[in-house]
Amino acid sequence: MTESTVTSAPSTAAPNHGLDNWRELAISQQPSWQDAAVHRSSLQELSTLPPLVFAGEVDVLRERLASAAQGKAFLLQGGDCAETFDGATADKISARVKTILQMAVVLTYGASLPVIKMGRMAGQFAKPRSSNDETREGVTLPAYRGDMVNGYEFTPESRGHDASRMVWAYHTSASTLNLIRAFTQGGFADLRLVHHWNKGFTANPAHSRYESLAREIDRAVRFMEACGADFDALTRVEFFASHEALLLEYERALTRTDSRTGLPYDTSAHFLWIGERTRDIDGAHIDFLSRVRNPIGVKLGPGTSPDDALALIDKLDPNREPGRLTFITRMGAKNIREKLPNLVSRVTDSGAQVLWVTDPMHGNTVTSPNGYKTRNFDDVMDEVRGFFEVHNELGTFPGGLHVEMTGDDVAECLGGADPIDQEAFLDRYESVCDPRLNHMQSLEMAFLVAGALSR
Ligand code: PEP
Ligand code: MN
Known about the structure:
single chain, alpha/beta, TIM Barrel, two-stranded antiparallel sheet, globular, binds phosphoenolpyruvate, binds manganese (II) ion
């Protein structure tokens, strides 16, 4: 991560910058904490803990996203649907960071543009759910809402909403971020090393069709080496953290006043997004995030009208500041070519310069015949292609990719060149929420997107 600035002590003063207005507004998807005293003390503790990210880093990210909004960089955002406390191990974190770095090298080559690397990591612990309950074999319990709220284990104790989990989420985010910072600053991100890992991918016969692109990248790396490129400088990369800002109490407790500017920053992550289920224009989530300086994303599903998008811009980006607002479309492969053009045209006509990113996962979720929540690799890729087609047709910039992925060899999404079938789910389905691309599927997507970008 980049140079940081000092952020002042937590502001516990009376409401400032309207940071508490959301408390008066309609709010959905919040927990019902079981113990009021634990709730109070947890929030008190969070409000005194140090910030997880620094305002200066957040400003750097806003500049990077502004250049992506202008067509001069590409965003790669990836990670678990729901991180878990148990999953915050060195092996899993390093595998995920490694996979994102590997994807980024391929995309950088394909796009001939800088790739902004961002994890759905170090804070992605709260989930919106379509139902409040879950029933298994006649027993009904509260639905799992992410490790920040309750446990995945299907028992009444585990499924109760425990506010002390917010503090646990903070500490797990801190240790995850610490390791990410070490990896991305300490030599692990060396371009030559990352490229070497990618050679392992194309050595698999199932991926032979990507060999020519890998060879081109190899030549480019050797060319840089021959020219005397400063590879030491290339051992460090910027890596940003993001999550869905769902639990507003947690986000509010980590929002601090930047001593340089006097403005509020949500220091729980560099980038926060608002989900499809909580983007009500008059609701609490939009109000709260409109008041912090972080770059903000909003997920847009197939039901989004151009007027909805314009209203979101007015609220979240009234000054039309490039880098401030990212629209993450998740239309579904079947809808994207029909729904996206009008949305993009109307936003472009309004003069706003938002960053358009595709989330090809959430509009393509299906249930496998043997009962698992899954996605077909081909549908995911079809949505990505549709996204590029629409933007190419309109002359706008397809600025990024938002994916649920892991660095591990799981079996959760169907297909890919080294195909996963539903039988593999029985042994290797690990996600506690939505299905993720595994390591190989993630790299394959990067090669396919790089091919599309370089055309
Ligand atoms: C998610 O990103 O995991 C998610 C719930 O997405 P959406 O808000 O797009 O449904
Ligand atoms: Mn998800």
